[in-house]
């Protein structure tokens, strides 16, 4: 037997699903749906608690030049759930986005990154490293975001030129003008911008030219098939040529095979990131990695 309340709740869930699918659609309730909604709600509560308890950490994936010299890292968020253990960002970032928690989470990442950069600056073998952090659309849209960046840099005494913000094309879906102005403001602090997952979104050349960027990041989907799919190979080559013609650095991510790296390098993309070089590493392992690759850097 079902209570009225239960029936209404189920109707509500189906309605939200229909709305999420873009309105003017129909959804019937099924228990799977409810299980998903409840799992999400539980995850959101756990995220909130973890944020209060500092249960997140950053891992660092090396970004290297042609001779394996470490130029910097991308910081990737890691969460160890008190019961479930490690939960992948692919699962919890979307929940954080939907619940608005991404703003706080992103602020935590920004603070950590600036603290890390300030520490690196004190060691000769790490002083040159850049650190890229992922910034979500919702975080960037906050009215005080530029201020938050400035404050984090000042608070920790980090060199702004070592900090890079990874943004995606989805950011430019609305209010292009105000987004670009905010980017200019942040860039005037000395902070760099990298356009992440490039090639997957809606890219128009005319707007790309107007963005105050430093780097394009070829999406891993193209890198994955670069040796096997002529279309992806053509896209990768085009992105490299496009980036360079706009005066931007180009980095490839998701590089897993030497053949992929060779192909990219042959077309002018020397900087790469991926399992071929290293998985994302905890800070101690990352610093060991930098030390181990120091000799190749010195030989440049
Ligand atoms: P992303 O920014 O595109 O990050 C790259 C993802 O590819 C990372 O997954 C990384 O571990 C993985 N990866 C690196 N090299 C390879 C490779 O050679 N092969 C394959 N198959 N994968 C590789 P991760 O760490 O699970 O992060 C997933 C996504 O979560 C990120 O995608 C990013 O969108 C989001 N994310 C992670 N950390 C943060 C954060 O601090 N803030 C925000 N807003 N999003 C984050
Ligand atoms: Ca990224
Ligand atoms: Ca990416």
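Q: What amino acid sequence fits the structure above?
A:
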């Amino acid at each position: 037997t079902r209570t009225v309340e239960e029936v209404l709740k189920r109707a509500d869930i189906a309605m939200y699903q229909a709305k999420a699918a873009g309105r003017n659609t129909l959804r019937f309730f099924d228990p799977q749906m409810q299980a998903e909604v409840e799992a999400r709600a539980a995850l959101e509560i756990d995220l909130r608690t973890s944020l209060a308890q500092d249960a997140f950490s950053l891992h660092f994936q090396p970004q290297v030049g042609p001779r394996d010299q470490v130029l910097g890292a991308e910081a990737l968020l890691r969460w160890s759930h008190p019961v479930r253990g490690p939960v992948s960002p692919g699962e919890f970032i979307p929940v954080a986005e939907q619940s608005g928690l991404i703003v706080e989470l992103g602020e935590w990442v920004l603070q950590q990154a600036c603290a890390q950069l300030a520490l690196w600056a004190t060691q000769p073998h790490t002083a040159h490293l850049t650190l890229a952090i992922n910034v979500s659309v919702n975080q960037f849209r906050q009215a005080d975001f530029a201020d938050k960046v400035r404050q984090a840099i000042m608070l920790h005494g980090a060199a702004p030129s070592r900090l890079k913000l990874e943004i995606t094309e989805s950011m430019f879906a609305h209010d292009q003008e105000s987004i670009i102005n905010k980017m200019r403001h942040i860039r005037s602090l000395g902070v760099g911008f990298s356009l992440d997952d490039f090639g997957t979104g809606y890219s128009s050349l005319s707007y790309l030219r107007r963005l105050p960027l430093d780097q394009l990041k070829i999406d891993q989907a193209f890198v994955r098939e670069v040796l096997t799919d002529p279309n992806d190979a053509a896209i990768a080559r085009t992105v490299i040529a496009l980036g360079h013609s706009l005066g931007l650095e180009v980095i490839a991510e998701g590089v897993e095979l030497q053949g992929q790296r060779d192909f990219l390098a042959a077309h002018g993309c020397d900087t790469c990131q991926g399992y071929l070089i290293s998985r994302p590493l905890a800070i101690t392992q990352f610093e060991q990695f930098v030390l181990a690759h120091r000799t190749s850097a010195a030989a440049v």
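Q: And what stands out in the fold?
A: Residues 196 and 226 are 18 Å apart (CA to CA).
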